[in-house]
Specification:
Layout: E1 6-11, E2 14-19, H1 20-23, H2 30-34, E3 43-45, E4 48-51, H3 55-67, E5 69-70, H4 79-88, H5 92-99, H6 101-104, E6 107-118, E7 121-128, H7 131-140, E8 141-149, E9 164-166, E10 169-172, E11 175-184, E12 189-197, H8 207-220, E13 224-232, E14 237-246, E15 251-252
Parallel strand pairs: 1-4
Antiparallel strand pairs: 1-2, 3-4, 5-15, 6-7, 6-14, 7-11, 8-9, 8-12, 10-11, 11-12, 13-14
Length: 253
Amino acid sequence: MSNREVVVLSVGGVRFVTRASTLQQFPESRLARMLNDDDREFKLVNGEFFVDRDGTLFSYIMDFLRTLQVSLPMDFSDYQRLQREAEFYGLYPLADLLSQEHLLKPRLEILEVRFALQEMQAFFRIFGSCSTTVETLAEQITVFTGQQAGQSWNSPFPSQKPLVPVPLERPSHHDMVFQCGTEYSAGDQFVARYVSIKPDNRKLINGINVLGLLLDTLLKDGFRLISTRTVSSEEKVGCYSFERMKRPAGLTV
């Protein structure tokens, strides 16, 4: 039996087809010994191994054997039952990982966007509980600056002069600061700042438009808007709070 390349198992009435080498990833496990007829729990019936265990949970066992990673659905909750199944099959490395349940559960991620309007300028500050998310978002956002003559921030067309990208301010790994709009320079010259947020390729100068695109980008990335509030009515500072459940990285043996 150990030389058989393809193995068929019926676990709790659910049929699985796999390679013998997959079941032999852990030679001391009962699944590996099964191929040598060394375990009476596994009955060979019409060329298929039958075992009276939970077939749904066994699908996670098979995924682990194929990838050597533990990656569970966002709504998974049967950690103890799956750990018992891993122990039954003699897959103790998997059982040890499942005992660290806190590492496998999805984590709540919080993001906050603060937005302020001052005359012809808009100011943004983004705080995030996950520094990786903030870093990824910072890579999506580009601020361009350039000088214009006699134009306001509501002008629909950017200056004909080349626009120069400028780096975002990063007070810490968990936040970023940027602004858009226009401010007076010298004479009738304006310094204009445009914002582009990938994958949208527009360069926006109006703060309300930038805010709308930013919120839409976060919603498409899986965040959920949970609250809006006014931080300072005098300074016209608004705050938008988001949350999402973030899948943990798969633990690898």
